[in-house]
UniProtKB/TrEMBL annotation:
Residues 370-393 have a biased composition (Basic and acidic residues). Residues 340-393, 424-444 are annotated as: Disordered. The keyword Magnesium does not apply. This is CBPC1 carboxypeptidase. Keywords: Carboxypeptidase, Hydrolase, Protease. Residues 342-369 have a biased composition (Acidic residues). The keyword Protease applies. GO terms for molecular function: carboxypeptidase activity.
Length: 444
């Protein structure tokens, strides 16, 4: 019987009425609901509470009359409320509205900003949003908006946030990559600038998600973008002397980390002198504890890209010295040890069957998050192998001389029969209420 419920009831009746003039009444009622939602937290809780039909009415209004999305945006202010909207079918309705709005020429900018802002809010709560966007045919709408409005930062920011959500799906990442999204991201990110840092951060996060696809990573390597990423990172490292933009610097490293998941990316990183760049910048970051995430990520990248060699190493790269066996003058072993010091002599099959993997990326439908974390083969995870083996320093026979000093380790403490001089079998007494005390050898 509250004011909000009364307004929602009026809105529900308007939705059922197909009279032309009712659109103005719907605008009036939704503006009233908007005022209550903006001014009262109690109203927002009331509309999203269990058993309330407020969300259904709002969604029905959006379906029938695609205007005034502001009240919808005010409701979506928390994670739980976003989840409620997802379960009520809000994602599907917003995607349909986006498809309808994109057909206008030119599209309504205000409507596009609102739609993308809402999708960016509820997208992380809907694991199937990538598949839904592809099925509804709206996957490239956000991409085309960014292409056509590169200077309109107010519009492309929510579009990039939505593209970041879409890119979590590997099939979407491949599809967007074919339409030039990787090249587009490099038009947005650039050298150090204090302007539009929030846009830079979102663009880097989107690019890092896109480069997790091997297809997109190869595309970035072929166009020389690994060198570009390293140059941008050095530029931000030099100018960010007060460390206010650590998240942007970490975003650049995440892009490098994603692209070096493939062998071509690791080779491009090494050829671009990336090892020296990340080592020097990490050394300069060690004194500042808040920059530990940069050092950790740089270390992971360097470990991943450093050439792997079999032990024992015949070069100065080894931290340990081994007594090398006699090596034949010819044969595969001799060829292995005759390689230059900077050659990676460990076979890397990570990029084999790339075409088959590309096809599987497109054919396989799995909308769960597929972060391809790099597996460090040099880290032992078997607990049994990590446990130190305790071996005796002497044979058992030599240790028996010490038995007399530690009789408790070898004596069999049993009750002896004084007549037969033999141990009695132990039989517990059921009448005993206290603990059973076994006599020691000295007491016997």
């Amino acid at each position: 019987n509250s004011r909000t419920m009364s307004l929602l009831s009026q809105l529900e009746k308007i939705n059922l009425d197909s009279v032309l003039g009712e659109s103005d009444n719907a605008r009036y009622v939704t503006s009233k609901i908007l005022h209550l939602v903006q001014s009262q937290e109690k109203t927002r809780k009331e509309m999203t509470s269990k058993g309330s039909t407020g969300i259904e009415v709002i969604l029905a209004t959006l379906e029938v009359k695609s205007f005034n999305l502001c009240d919808y945006g005010c409701i979506v202010s928390g994670g739980r409320r976003a989840s409620v909207l997802v379960t009520k079918g809000g994602t599907q309705i917003l995607l349909q509205l986006l498809l309808t709005a994109s057909k206008d020429s030119p599209p309504n900018e205000e409507l596009m900003v609102l739609l993308h802002t809402l999708l960016a809010k509820i997208g992380p709560k809907d694991k199937k949003i990538g598949m839904k966007a592809r099925i509804n045919g709206v996957l490239n709408i956000s991409l085309n908006l960014v292409k056509q409005n590169l200077q309109n930062h107010r519009l492309i920011l929510p579009c990039l946030q939505v593209l970041r959500v879409y890119s979590a799906n590997s099939v979407n990442a491949v599809s967007l990559g074919k339409n030039g999204v990787v090249e587009l991201m490099f038009k947005i990110i650039g050298p150090f600038s204090k302007k539009n840092t929030s846009l830079m951060k979102v663009a880097l996060d989107t690019l890092a998600a896109l480069l997790k696809s091997k297809t997109n990573a190869r595309r970035a390597v072929d166009r020389g973008y690994v060198q570009v990423l390293l140059t941008i990172y050095v530029d931000w490292h030099r100018h960010d002397s007060r460390h206010r933009y650590m998240l942007i610097r970490k975003g650049i490293l995440q892009c490098i980390k994603s692209v070096t998941n493939i062998k071509l990316g690791r080779k491009a990183f090494t050829d671009a002198n990336g090892m020296k760049i990340l080592y020097n910048t990490s050394q300069e970051c060690l004194a500042v504890r808040t920059l530990d995430p940069l050092v950790n990520t740089s270390s992971l990248i360097m470990r991943k890209c450093f050439p792997k060699n079999r032990l024992p190493l015949p070069t100065i790269k080894s931290a340990f010295h081994f007594q090398l066996p006699v090596i034949p003058a010819s044969g595969p072993v001799a060829q292995l040890y005759s390689l230059p010091p900077d050659v990676d002599d460990v076979v890397d099959e990570s990029d084999d069957n790339d075409d088959a993997e590309t096809e599987s990326e497109i054919e396989t439908e799995n909308d769960d998050d597929k972060d391809q974390h790099f597996k460090n083969d040099d880290i032992e995870t078997d607990i049994n192998k990590l446990k130190p083996r305790q071996e005796l320093g002497r044979p058992i026979e030599e240790l028996k001389m010490y038995e007399q000093f530690f009789p408790e380790l070898s004596e069999n403490f049993q009750e002896w029969d004084l007549v037969s001089k033999e141990p009695k079998p132990f039989v517990p007494d059921a009448n005993l209420s206290g603990p059973i005390v076994v006599p020691t050898a000295s007491e016997e």
